[in-house]
Amino acid sequence: MILRRLALAAVLLALGAGVARAELAPPDSALDRFLCGLSDSTDAYFGLSAGRADTAGFDSALVYGLAHPGAGERVSWRPSIGPDLGFNRVDGPRYGAVAAIGRASRRGRLEGRLGWASGPGDLLGGGTLLRSMARGGATWSLRLHAGRFTQSMNRDFGGLRLAMLDAFVTGKDYVHYLRRDGFEASLARETATWRAAAGFRDMLETPISTHATWNLSKAEPVLRDNLPAWRGRNLELTLEAAARWPFAPVWSEIQHASSSGAAGSDFEYRRIRAALAGDFAVGRWLAIVPQLSYGRLSGQAPPQAAFYLGGSHTLRSIPGGARGGTGMALARLDLIEVHDLLARLPHPAWLPLQAGAFAAAGAAWGADPYGGPRRGGLSLPDAEHWASEAGASLLWRPGLPDPAWFLRLSRAWPLGPGREGARFTLSYSRALDLVERLGE
After folding, report:
1. CATH says 33-47+236-440 is which class?
2. Strands, DSSP E only, in 104-208?
């Protein structure tokens, strides 16, 4: 028992040292400065429950832990079980459960899901094995997954949590879905400055029809039909590389996916997407976040491999995924005021609000996955296919479960003649949502 307590104390000391280093390190952007201030708000809101632990005596525990490696407390392999509920217009209500055991950073984490889609009356679910280990300043991650799931047709921005809630409450479900059955694996190596990953999947991809057109508010659904995916067995290889630029808060990444009949796949295509994003501070009150994204699809053009434009991650003045093609280009600039808007007014410490403004331009060209006429353009679209917008946002960082994410309410106005009207969008994401920041 004494050995266990000493080892636990050593772990807490290491965590405490990590916190101290984080507090001493200078922030590299205005958004990071805001996160430092967010910890002060947490202390004010939670009071003594957020106080620091008394670390007296931890030094001797650390010395013992270094002299006796492996004497730490063993991780209990107790499974965790919980509900897994969902809703969309193709599956209707989905009832299920999820169970998990282990930790990815120890011997591995095994997750299992099983659910019943009441619309088509199908069983969905599968298993996932996650394993990660730190070696020489880098983290290796392995993911093995097999099962049967309903997924988004838009593979670049496939987050379905808010879409599920919106579909259930208001009927505003802009996502198009397909069914995937099979196996996939990925292996990644990541450091503080770069990441490389490779993946493979062997899956049967099938179309799904709409089975639920109702919602809680009894409103007319914005979409009734579901874009049909091409049916076939897809053997796809993916490669990814990402890096943080030296001497500047800039991130870049490139992703390549290929499917070939020579490997036994029913599809033949090559898909590449590149993105660039920066996070620059202007004094201590403003963050400037420019982002660029470009993608091309060659060979066959199944809808599940196309690029889509519209929604909170691309052009907010266009309904989610309303435009698509074999080519996509996007440029967006966000300005985010860092300080709490309510700083001079009495308000709860857990409700820090920020203001933002944005402008964007983007286009999708090539073969239209919705069956419309082909949009002209080779490496870039013809001029008439570009769409631009400007708007304002109100942002709230809840701090949980991830302090880098925020809930964003935006109002976007289209620019130019013949465009749609202004739209509100609600999203939950990071400021740099076109790239994955390293170390997260």
Report:
1. mainly beta
2. 108-117, 122-135, 138-152, 177-190, 194-206
